[in-house]
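Example 3.2
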Amino acid sequence: MGDTETNTTIRPLKYVDIGINLGDPVFRGNYHGKQAHEDDLADIIERAQSIGCAKFMVTGSDLKESEHAVQISKDYPGFCYATVGVHPCQAKHFDEHPEGPSKLLAELRDLALSSKQSGQTVAFGEIGLDYDRLFLSPKESQLKWFEAQLDLAVEIQLPLFLHSRAASDDFERLLKPRLAQLPKGGLVHSFTGTKEEMQRMIELGLDIGVNGCSLKTEENLEVVKHIPLDRIQIETDGPWCEIRPSHASAKYLTDAPPLPKAVKKEKWQKGYMVKGRNEPAAIAHVAHVIARVKGVSVEEVCEAAWNNSIKMFGLGELNN
């Protein structure tokens, strides 16, 4: 019989970057309020698409950024999708709103509801708790507005895009009763917790989002090794969370497909990446490390992650 086409054909890899802060000004060449180089957002998107990144989930971190994420999803229909929510480090926005917290909550609800109905928004988030950065928003405020936003997500029936840092007890306590009312569940993004925390998240019915920050230490890698393939999703969290040479995961990149050359922002040229600015094309390296750590093929990791993301968020492939 010999080799058949079926045996020799390699399917191209397909990615969903489920956590990309595409609204950040650095993706348009603006750093700390100064224009360092021309707007290269189109190049960034083209690079991501060239390695098989077929869907972006653009993260909303407060009302303004959520509105921005929805607008980006309108600008790139069928490719970009939004999350809507207020990040725990921005929880003080509720307390400081000039018309009171109920006004902000109502605006958030209206945005999430209307943009879900028009197909732009696929998740409620980024919401959660962050006890590592209480100097940004106090614990009481984080708890109050996490709970209020969870109730909104249940009302609107959006899966969750979650953030948890050093707060697992309160995080799980508030989540548990709501998850029973959310058939699509949700995802804990940029996961850096312990193996035990990860297993509890899985038991709650949540998926785990992995990026460069999830791959920093040997302990992190051990956690990733044990995430079931049917519960893993992949992200870059760009422009942050890149895999750095000092990270435990870097040793697995020796045989990874190379990324375009990166230069300092002051030396930027068209077609180059920027040092220190993580971008979606780097999702290929995240998948490569996960595959090496788990002892499976990159194809297996990508297929599982794609299926998990589509199942949870729809992303134009399924009617959520």
